[in-house]
Design a protein that fits this description.
The chain is of the alpha/beta class and 359 residues long. Helix content is 51%, strand content 13%. α3 packs antiparallel against α4. GO terms for molecular function: tRNA 2-selenouridine synthase activity.
Length: 359
């Protein structure tokens, strides 16, 4: 028999596949991040069943729903077979009603390990909204600071591979920040989806006392970092990363020119948007160099005269930070930050979930 669990409990499960059994339109509007859509009824069928409920009553509408849904079950099972593997299935509908009960029963009969979310998607949105009303997280943020190009994201990803809980806000937003931040990246998610991804991350890390995050402003592209996360960043344990200008230029070149045509057109458009800050003559000069693929002088100028004055981070060690790390060697820098983090008292604490809400 499938098991009914709360959204808090569902988010803590490991090796899961979330299954949204609502219609395509409901799924497209918003869903729990990472969910696959396996609608019991499609958009048109849902409308027919709704009309039957109002005209003929609940019993007739249930029979109609079964008549519409049953013939498609073999195809849905085949789809899940290709996606689920040995994963636990977490099934939800709009409010934990007939659709999720029906699909959970079928999947349980087929031998899957199935959980059903009590209250469905509505309980999830309530969970999200309660999180957004918090002022503080119970977990402490270790915050990576540093000038553009020092390798904050690279260190973050290395720490994740070493097993530390890392939150890549720019990765979730699909935007690196600033006017150049969208170059070479896919479309950004909706604000709801961005918030959901942050909250599910905090839920998933369970009893970890800290998590690692880059310092971000409130806005990442067109998305807003939720207030509780911004407070965690502002009040976090400050780690400064630094590197020589030449190394920063090399990293920027690798990141921003790895695309069709070296992303020259996008780079020129972004540079042109700085005309009020650096002047038209300089913009035209930089764009000519971009056209010639003479990238390093362009990125060196932008770092020294645009990005560095904008962010105002130290170029080397500073007493204003808990630890300062040279990132010329990313592997070594990541190891230093790893050792620093795992020796923090907060890392040893069993504080529970950072965004824990009432079940």
């Amino acid at each position: 028999m499938f098991e009914d669990i709360t959204i808090n409990e569902a988010a803590r499960l490991s090796n899961t596949l979330w299954v949204d059994v609502r219609s395509e339109n409901e799924y497209a509007e918003d869903t729990i991040p990472g969910s696959v859509n396996l609608p019991v009824l499609n958009n048109e069928e849902r409308a027919l069943v709704g009309a039957s409920y109002h005209h003929d009553g609940p019993d007739a509408s249930r029979r109609l729903a079964l008549q519409l849904a049953a013939p498609k079950l073999p195809a849905k099972i085949r789809k899940l077979d290709s996606l689920a593997g040995e994963k636990n299935l977490v099934v939800f509908c709009w409010r934990g009603g007939e659709r999720s009960r029906f699909m959970a029963s079928v999947l349980d009969t087929m031998g899957y390990r199935v959980y059903r979310v009590i209250g469905g998607y509505k309980s999830y949105r309530r969970y999200v909204n309660e999180f957004l009303e918090q002022e503080e997280l119970t977990q402490r943020a270790v915050v990576l600071h540093g000038l553009t190009g020092v390798g904050k994201t690279e260190v973050l990803l290395q720490l994740g591979r070493k097993g530390l809980p890392v939150l890549d806000l720019e990765g979730l937003a699909r935007h690196r920040g600033s006017v150049f931040g969208k170059i070479g990246l896919p479309p950004s998610p909706s604000q709801k989806s961005f918030e959901s991804s942050i909250i599910l991350f905090l839920t998933s890390i369970g009893d970890k006392g800290v998590f690692i995050v880059e310092c971000e402003s409130r806005r990442v592209g067109n998305l807003l970092v939720p207030p509780p996360m911004m407070n965690a960043i502002r009040n976090g344990i400050r780690v400064l990363l630094y590197a020589p200008l030449a190394e920063r230029v090399r990293r920027i070149r690798e990141i921003y020119t790895s695309g069709p045509g070296d992303n020259v057109k996008q780079l020129q458009e972004a540079t042109s948007s700085l005309v009020k800050r650096i002047g038209r003559v300089k913009v035209e000069e930089l764009n000519r160099m971009l056209e010639e693929r003479n990238f390093d002088p362009v990125f060196s100028f932008l770092l020294k005269y645009y990005y560095d004055p904008l962010y105002k981070y130290p170029e080397g060690p500073s007493p204003d930070y808990s630890i300062c790390v040279d990132t010329t060697d990313i592997e070594r820098a990541s190891e230093i930050v790893f050792n620093f983090t795992t020796n923090l008292p907060e890392y040893q604490k069993q504080q529970g979930f950072g965004g824990k809400l009432k079940d």
